[in-house]
Amino acid sequence: MNRRNLLKTLSLSLGTGIVTTDVLARVGENTYSYLIGENSNHQPISKPVTVITCGAGSRGNVYGNYATQFPEQLKVIGVAEPVAFRNEKYAKKHQIEAANRFDTWEDVFKKPKMADAVIISMPDNLHYEPCMQALRLGYDVLLEKPIAPTERECRNILALARKTGRIVAVCHVLRYAPYFVKMKELIAKGAIGEVISMQHLEPIEHTHMAHSYVRGNWHNSKQTTPIILAKSCHDLDIMKWVIDKKAEKIVAMGNLKWFRRENAPAGSTARCTDGCLVERSCPYSAIKEYVDVVGRSHVLDIPENVPDRKLAALERLKTSNYGRCVYRMDNDQPDHYVSSIQFSDNVTASFSMEAFTAYHGIRTRVMGAMGDMVGDMNELVVHDFRTKKEMRFVPDAEDVAGYKNSGHGGGDWLLVKDFVQAVAQQNPALLTSTIDESIESHIMGFMAESSRKNGRVMEVKI
What we know:
It is built from 14 helices and 21 strands.
């Protein structure tokens, strides 16, 4: 593929606009750095879109931080958050008046509609009801994934969004990441010919698995959502999005193999703080993870003004799930999960979610009739069978107006940017992850979980 032909592949219609990546810089032999161009359907807005954030944790701050950097586009005018210091910190950051600070999401919707949109970034099991309430009151919604814990609830949100005509943008942020935009562009323009198959790996990383899915908020699938949705609905979504095929059948296998009581080493105790004899050598030691590592204590919700954060972290481990032995939790999430998918046009795909890795970062391979591509979100390598050459594409860290990597390869803020435009123009076509688009990958997840539990190949019906 010569440079002239390459440049012809670098634009693709997304929604109703054109997103281009023809801003290239050669950084080595056959290696190019690139940026995502502006969507031609974005328009200047006369006043900022106003939002209320329900859930001022990690994701609520990621999306809300867009408003601190681009106040002319987005203004956070309310917050609902039960954790007092989170509520206080978020309100101070966005200068939210006392009347618009709420302890619970229910209190938000007791008032008449007072903003253009709502950001729902609460735990998975608290997505459905607030989203339905928001739609009934006429709010547009930026909804953190997964949409809801059950297929029925996901379909109900879709039906109400269609009935009310409101926008529901699902936070499938990888669709906005320059890396995956490039992958989709090149596939759509025939860089590897007709797609034949795909392999996709989600390496969770062993300590992240222990933090989030053994000890953490998502440790119990019955109380939240199955790990295939909690962690990997974005993987299923990006697989179908980049190859642009409909999922037809899915089969899955996996279980909880290691983080079980019978695997607890001799000398271990109920908590890492109970005098465990193997704590210093255990790779999952809560003391090593949250006390010894400077800067990790923030995940324990310790206020920033506490003078001795390490001591406070140690005390928190004595009472919270984060201090419990990983082998003695009431967790049920699989720690390894594989799935095979049949897409339309006889395209096959395999997906693997693995807890036991020393690294994180999605790895993807796409095999085509005329070439293949391999990538790890940092670099995408395209091999052309016809020319026997390869080209390397490295996404620039810049994502929005000079700001560097807001998260998920730049996808976090690029999503918010498009959401602001969609709400301001009342045009959901400016988004690539409306609920109409995102529902299919959620159904894939529910069918995968049903297959894993029942040992059957499941049809994917939208």
